[in-house]
Amino acid sequence: MKISNRLAEGREFSLLMWIAVLLVGVVLGVYGAYHLIVRQEASSIPWGLLVPSYVFFALAATGSSLVNSILTVFNVQRFKPIIKKGILLSLVLIVPAGIFIILDLGKLVSAYNMYFLFQPGSRMAWMGVLYIMFIASLILELIVVLREEHMLKWAPRFMGIVVLVVTLAVHTNLGALFGAVAAKPLWSSHLLPIHFIISATLVGAVLHILFISVTHLVKRASVPSELKQLFTDCYRPLIIGLIIINLVLIAVKFIPEIFSPEGISYVKLMVAGPYSGLFWGLEIAVGCIIPLIVLLHRKTRGSVRWLLSVSPLVVIGVYFSKYNLLIGGQSIGPLFTEGFISYVPGVADILLFVGGIAACLLVYTLGERLLPVELEEKPAWFIFVRKRTPLKEGA
Amino acid sequence: MSTFQKEAEKEWFCGNGTSSPDGTGDLSCWSYDGRLRHGFCGNPGQSTSRARLSARKIWQRRLPRRKIMPKAVLVDLRKCMGCRGCQVACKQWNELPAVTTQNRGTYENPPDLSPHTWSLVKFREIGENGTVKWVFSKWQCMHCLQPACVTVCPTEALYKTEEGPVLYDESRCIGCQYCRTACPFSIPRFDWETRVVRKCTLCGDRIAGGLEPACVKTCPPAALSFGKREAVIAKANEAEAEGAYLYGRDEVGGTSWIYVSDVPFDELGYPDVGTKSYPSHSAGIWGSQISTIVVGAAALGLYSLYLRRKKIEGEQR
User: Fold this and answer.
1) Tens-digit pLDDT profile for residues A152-198
2) How far apart, in whole angstroms, are the C-alpha atoms of residue B207 and residue B200?
3) Residue B310 contacts A where some CB pair is shorter than 8 Å
4) What pTM was estimated for this model as a whole?
């Protein structure tokens, strides 16, 4: 048997194994969802693990979309090789966000009320509408980009602008949903919408690098030099700048709270209290300081391998920044509870979290296989490919 | 009993909004004899909140044609003796079950508000002139004039009435619990079994019929008094002129519970929530959202410009 055939069979087997693993994850998630809905276990705080997880994936989806707009709106052609995957990634990342937030609703059967009894003064009501617009515009953008040859010349740019505006509206609304809650000093801030946009773009950029690089590696093909150059020339300075702005915003948020009677308790919670480990260890050190050092050090700053190795650290840092913000913000007790409310995610929440990530990766894997997301690929029927063009070995 | 209430005893109202003197109707039937009661027509009822809402709407239409004045409760903590009759009256009127608790070595029981405890009396020991005195304080929904919970609710499940109570329609609720996080007093409690929010209703059903809340009616030393908000504030201002401390008059834009005490409220555990209402705080964030959209798009554009110039310079080199 030819070596190329054996390699092809090996890749197919790996792919099947990968899908099988993801399906197991999805099944675990379904079990977690069943447990959550049917067993109805009480939580010590209103918004548990599922809400920061939803926020993280919403950030990731919108952030990926913002990075895509560098090509789709501002016409930087260097991003052309990754644009189809970028749009697919934005769509894929919103899947777990939707799963988490819908299943977190206490009364799922009445969820449709959010649309039929729409309250224009409520940011949560707007969240429901804006996310539908976001998903719809992303799907349209993907179709337009995949079928670019059949579209009007201005269609991709037009859709890019629509997606950019909707993305910014969605994400600033999410930031304001928390920022407008004066009852929670850790959340209450006019800067929170801006902070969310910064976090979103940061995690969107690193997920582009992660997904695209890992996809090539899984297919046993090295990352093309064109992409490597794109990551080091365009993504690296963006990531460095966003990490620095992120650190500045954290400092700007916490320093004034030191002088506020209520705010000081939240600052202590993060800086020197039960959340200090997550804050200093994961959010600051792992998520910001280590990546900054690696990306700025003269020996490592030009290396794509080092860029790829710090990308997961940034993802972890951004996730835990949202975890600390949302869970920590609810941890200072209501009036009658002395001190700090301890929260431990339930088993159902954790299983659902695992299932959501598995569902995201599964949809991305299937999308990669069914859609012409490589630069040179064209759709055979509508937006789908009939036959996968294998990547060249060692390309 | 007012003529209006006497009239009420004669009539039955079905959940579908039509009056039915013989009690027939295909939905639950309610009689107003001081409280809404179900079941005289013998038909199984629909959800309690729907029927109450329907009956309430009927009552509003039948009220004399005058402006409905907002009401408030004056809580004079100087008179409160900690009997907790208000707690019991609330449980009895709203048919709330008892809550199993533990002996924590305090007279406070239960320790916290819950889906089944809407009114709670807290005991505080205050040091004064080398002795210790007890000060009792009553906790329940403050029924703010500009409630944060009403503003954030995506389906208007929580709504503010003209008389003052902030009420809840469980048929609209999606269980998002945004009201719990937004309330500056941390009042709404989520019932994890029935998946609905529960809190004090200021006995909206009693007020709609011209009665006072159950807790006010039962208070032995008359520490609680109920009336038009203007009159309640006037009394509170008189007490403040005499040196008493006030709480609830200005907090978060004003509430329907005005407290009077001779001990500062921060010593009693009342939170410093400021005088700015949630809607006015939230309004300021809209500007931040819009400016973020503009600045975000501009920043992406500038970065793209930088990348294109960098590429051109690279090509020229």
Assistant:
1) 888 899 999 999 999 999 999 999 999 999 888 888 888 999 999 99
2) 13
3) yes
4) 0.85
**Predicted ipTM?**
0.87
A123 touching B (Cβ < 8 Å): yes
Cβ pair B281:A188 closer than 8 A: yes
CA dist list (Å): B279 to A182, B49, B143, B145, B253: 10, 27, 15, 11, 10
CB B139 to CB A336 under 8 A? yes
Q: Would you give the DSSP letter of residue B201?
A: -
Residue B215's closest CA among B130, B118, B297, B299?
B118
Under 8 Å between Cβ of B8 and B32: yes
Interchain proximity A262–B177, CB inside 8 Å: no
How many residue pairs bridge chain A and chain B with CB atoms within 8 Å of each other? 182
Q: Is B312 on the interface with A (CB under 8 A)?
A: no
Chain A residues close to B253, C-beta within 8 Å: none
**Which residues of chain B make contact with A229, given a CB cutoff of 8 A?**
none
Q: Please name the residue of chain B whose CA is at the shortest distance from the CA of residue A239.
A: B303
- Residue A165: the pLDDT is 95
Burial of A299 (0-12, 13-18, 19+ CB in 10 A): exposed
Q: From first to last of its 395 residues, what are the pLDDT tens digits of chain A?
A: 455 555 566 667 778 888 899 999 999 999 988 888 776 667 788 899 999 999 999 999 999 999 999 999 998 888 988 999 999 999 999 999 999 998 888 777 888 888 888 888 899 999 999 999 999 999 999 999 998 888 888 889 999 999 999 999 999 999 999 999 988 888 888 899 999 999 999 999 999 999 988 888 777 677 888 889 999 999 999 999 999 999 999 998 888 777 776 667 777 778 888 888 999 999 999 999 999 999 999 888 888 899 999 999 999 999 999 999 999 888 876 554 456 788 888 888 999 999 999 999 999 988 988 888 887 788 877 777 765 555 544 43
Q: Which chain A residues are closer than 8 Å to B289 by Cβ?
A: 172-173, 175-176, 193
Check CB contact of A341 with chain B, cutoff 8 Å: no
CB of B288 within 8 Å of any CB in chain A? yes
B153 vs A contacts (CB less than 8 Å)? 119, 122, 124
Which B-chain residues 126-145 have CB contacts (< 8 A) with chain A?
Answer: 139
Instruction: List chain A residues with CB under 8 Å of B152.
Output: 122-124, 181
Query: How far apart (Å, rounded) are the C-alpha atoms in residues A276 and A282?
Result: 9
**By the CB < 8 Å criterion, does A180 face chain B?**
yes
Q: What is the 3-state secondary structure (H, E, C) of chain A?
A: CCHHHHHHHHHHHHHHHHHHHHHHHHHHHHHHHHHHHHHCCCCCCCCCCHHHHHHHHHHHHHHHHHHHHHHHCCCCHHHHHHHHHHHHHHHHHHHHHHHHHHHHCCCHHHCCHHHHCCCCCCHHHHHHHHHHHHHHHHHHHHHHHHCHHHCCCCHHHHHHHHHHHHHHHHHHHHHHHHHCCCCCCCCCCCCHHHHHHHHHHHHHHHHHHHHHHHHHHHCCCCCCHHHHHHHHHHHHHHHHHHHHHHHHHHHHHHHHHCCCCCHHHHHHHHHCCCCHHHHHHHHHHHHHHHHHHHHHCCCCCCCHHHHHHHHHHHHHHHHHHHHHHHHHHCCECCCCCCCECCCCCCHHHHHHHHHHHHHHHHHHHHHHHHCCCCCCCCCCECCECCCCCCCCCCC
